[in-house]
Amino acid sequence: RLRLPMTLSFYIGRHFMLTVLATLAVMLVIVGLIELLELVRRAANVTRPIGFGLLIEMTLLKLPTTAEKIYPFAVMIGGMITLTRLTRTSELVVARAAGVSVWQFLLPGVMGALVLGTFLVTVMNPIAASTITRYERIEGKYITGKASLLSVSPSGLWMRQSGTETIHFKKAEANEYIIHALRMDQSNYTLESVMILLFDSAHHFIGRIDAPRAQLLKGQWRIENATLSTAQGLPSVVPEFLMPTQLTLSQIQDSFSAPETFSFWQLPGFISVLEKAGFSALQHRLHFHSLMAMPLLLAGMLLLSAVFALRPPRRGRTGIMVVIGLAAGFMLYFMTNIIYALGASGDLPIVLAAWAPSLIVMMAASAVLLHLEDG
Questions:
Q1: What is the DSSP letter of 233?
Q2: Is 12 helix (H, G, I), strand (E, B) or coil?
Q3: Is the separation of the CB atoms in 169 and 223 below 8 Å?
Q4: Residues whose CB falls within 8 Å of the CB of residue 175, separated by 6 or more in sequence, listed in order
Q5: Is pLDDT above 60 for 147?
Q6: Which is nearest to 356 in space by CA: 371, 372, 345, 341?
Q7: How far apart are CA 89 and CA 282, in angstroms?
């Protein structure tokens, strides 16, 4: 077969990249408008007035994270538009008549998809992680009114709760507390190496509790061998101290920062910290591996676009094939969500759940193209 000239390779590759980027831009505008309308609806149900400018800022902050979900569709649709246009102008027809195989003129697009995927994961993902973190802070402050209860760091985990039931601590009353612990055993809801700081309704420090363990029961913490300290008196030790709380284990788990708030470069370190603290990091591991698989997924989506777009105009029904291709893309999206859900629940190995969609698309598209090209 004829070797594809470098000039033609750059020409085809440029067509792919420009069309994919233009498709991504159009999709982001559409999705951004939908996100803005949803935020306007949510803001209408909040008693505190929220300016329209803030809603636009929140939309722009969320857009980079939303874009990560539509990258594969942008590559697929952009690939289909490019191949359909080049076929209708007979450029690919002439190239194939000259001995250029389907693999040769798809190679520039595949390489471009791999490069684009690598750029999106290593450069754009940290930006998206930063913007979605700010978005969640604004959302918690102005719309949901819920701040994160839990923070996990190399020094252990920190929990804060205010507005709780009154805690009687020696001769004072506390309405707010901060808990620090080295780790949590989720099998019995027990914190290890616990320190609790107590504050009154005016945020003045009242006292401190140190204990080897604190178990979360229904409506209260049961703290064993607690050392009670105040700023004025000497410490005292009690065998058991019961402290009322409104926290539940599900609330603690829901307070974890979403995997999307950590960049590709931060995730390995946070996963290690999370597991040392005694919590499951399945969702964060899944997100990390899905980011690693992103370049391969984009390359597979481009090959999939060729399956439905490489149809000679004389055969007709090109539009129908494009619609079928879009339907296949959405079916893949739902299949991917199901596989990710199985991985997040632990029913599938994380590596398999994260890489399976990319490998399935790549192998299926390659098999169909081999059949169409070589029979």
A1: S
A2: helix
A3: no
A4: 162, 163, 164, 166, 167, 199, 200, 201
A5: no
A6: 341
A7: 49
Strand partners, 213: 192, 224
What is the rounded distance in angstroms from the CA atom of residue 375 to the CA atom of residue 371? 4
* DSSP single-letter state for residue 246: -
DSSP state of 201: T
Angstrom distance (rounded) from CA 139 to CA 147: 9
User: Which residue's structure tokens are 């598209």?
Assistant: 365
CA-CA distance, 287 to 266, in Å (whole number)?
12
Which residue reads 């949901």 in tokens? 144
**Interatomic CA distance for residues 82 and 20, integer angstroms:** 9
Instruction: Render pLDDT for 279-336 as a digit per residue (tens, 0 to 9).
Output: 777 888 899 999 999 999 999 999 888 888 776 555 556 667 777 777 887 888 888 8
Task: Determine contact, residues 227/169, Cβ cutoff 8 Å.
Answer: no
Residue whose structure tokens are 């590596």? 351
- Longest CA span, the chain: 93
Distance CA 148, CA 99 (A): 61
Please list, in sequence order, all residues whose beta carbon lies within 8 angstroms of the beta carbon of residue 307, skipping any fewer than 6 positions away.
325, 365, 368, 369, 372
- Mean pLDDT (the chain) is 82
Give per-residue pLDDT as tens, 90-119. Answer: 777 777 777 777 788 888 888 999 999 999
The two structure tokens encoding residue 144: 């949901």
The tokens for 290 are: 């899905």
Cα–Cα distance, 212 to 25 (Å, whole number): 55
CA atoms of 98 and 104, how far apart (whole Å): 12
Residues in the chain: 375
Determine how β-strand 150-153 pairs with β-strand 156-169.
antiparallel
DSSP label at residue 48: S
